[in-house]
Amino acid sequence: MTSDSVSEYIPTNSIRLHTVLAGPEDGEPVFLLHGFPDAWFGWKAQINALADIGFRVVVPDQRGCNLSDKPSGVSSYRIETLADDILGLADALGYQRFHLAGHDFGALVAWTLAMRHPIRLRRLAIANVPHPAVMQTYLRIHPSQMWKSWYVFFFQLPGLPELFVKANDWRFLISALPDDLTDQERDRYRAAWAQPHAMTSMINWYRASLRQSRKAHVSPKIPVPTLVIWGQQDPHLSYGMAPLSVDLCEQGRLVTFEDAAHWVMHDRPEEVSRLLIEHFSAEGPQ
């Protein structure tokens, strides 16, 4: 972490989010959203790079994760609620507009914000998760993606997924992380997953994603300038969804890494940091 980083518990949307802030306080705000089974420190390389260049970097543990509040019930983890958490966090910090990047489930929250509240975003960056409309269509057409997403359906069961992921010192979740993490880094993840009620809360993200009813139509078009970064060796999400997602962006750009996998910001930290800096520093329509 940078020497000027701070950790705060910030109230938003009737909960508190543990949030790390780095970089100059008067810097242009960049929010980084982690996914499953991650925590704020999954973005550590990008936090340093963005803060060093002068951005004010805001990185929460999302609802239910690590040190943030963990309200009970599946309905507490609807995607609109997760998105409202981030809007409330921005409001609490005094930011009317901000740059936003998301990975994995954090990218789904970012896509949702860009569809429902585009006026709040300056620029959007997505890492290895398709636009939700593309995902829905792709699952129906491509059985291979259904198989890759088996865990989403397994997580709908009550109780059993929690026991499964905790077994053998969190072996299943450890296997989902990058292979080259140090023992210390793996232990840091184990500590985050072992927080009281954390794993049920995190799995509830997936339970809520399949159980929520669809509300009023929201256009899938993304009017915000958008960068999609994709590691082509992702074992969970088919690369074919990446260009289809960019097609739904009015100002979209796709950058791929043939030798990177799902954790692209870990596999190619310098390149991903550079891309985010370039994207969030770009002039033009915002």
Explained architecture:
With 286 residues, this protein is of the alpha/beta class. Helix content is 43%, strand content 17%. It has twelve helices and eight strands. The chain has helices at 44-53, 79-93, 105-116, 132-141, 143-148, 150-154, 160-176, 183-193, 198-211, 241-247, 264-267, 269-281; strands at 6-12, 15-22, 29-33, 56-60, 98-103, 121-127, 226-231, 252-257. It has an eight-stranded mixed beta sheet, with helices on both faces. Helix 10 (241-247) links the parallel strand 7 and strand 8 (252-257). Helix 1 crosses helix 12 and helix 2 (79-93) crosses helix 3 (105-116). The protein is globular. The mean pLDDT is 94.
Tell me briefly what this model is.
This protein has 286 residues and is an alpha/beta fold. The chain is built from 12 helices and 8 strands.
Give the topology.
Elements: E1 6-12, E2 15-22, E3 29-33, H1 44-53, E4 56-60, H2 79-93, E5 98-103, H3 105-116, E6 121-127, H4 132-141, H5 143-148, H6 150-154, H7 160-176, H8 183-193, H9 198-211, E7 226-231, H10 241-247, E8 252-257, H11 264-267, H12 269-281
Parallel strand pairs: 3-4, 3-5, 5-6, 6-7, 7-8
Antiparallel strand pairs: 1-2, 2-4
Helix pairs in contact: 1-12, 2-3
